[in-house]
Amino acid sequence: MRSNLLTAVALTASFALTASAQMDMEKKSTPASPDPAAYGAAVKEGYDRVRTATAPFQKLAAAVAAGYAPTVENCLADPAHGAMGYHHINRDYVDKTLEVEHPEILLYERLADGSYALNGVEYIVPYRVWPADSVPPRIMGRELQRSDDLKLWYMHMWVWKRNTAGLFANWNPAAACRKPPA
Q: Where are the domains of the chain?
């Protein structure tokens, strides 16, 4: 009996170590490419769907009419990595359900002339509806990342502005936070 228990414990530990090593290898082998096809069929198909769904939001006014915030005070930037931009959230989409065609956040960049360009989207799920100690939510076959500071799961996707750091990178070196024209 004790031998069976020890064997079961050893097998469980072995499976856990193998799964952990596979996840580490998967993370290391995930391409950092701006090309959606580099991530597989699910991402390529999701990329095409989110572009179609967000095409009308190239103009910020259309996004506002669809329920996204009209103004955002802060543009998020990092001097070494680029910018994320202005995060225009649609609070009606903030729940535990992730839908490719309904990103919770649209990422905009203010251009030199003061207009806004849609650069990408962000999917979020707050910890209050998907606890931090559970398995990560997934969309397009990909796990969302944890942000303990913001108490949410998240994933950026640069569908309108090419990102040399990768389609799902947090920062885009080609994006910038510009002050409004004087």
A: 1-30, 33-157
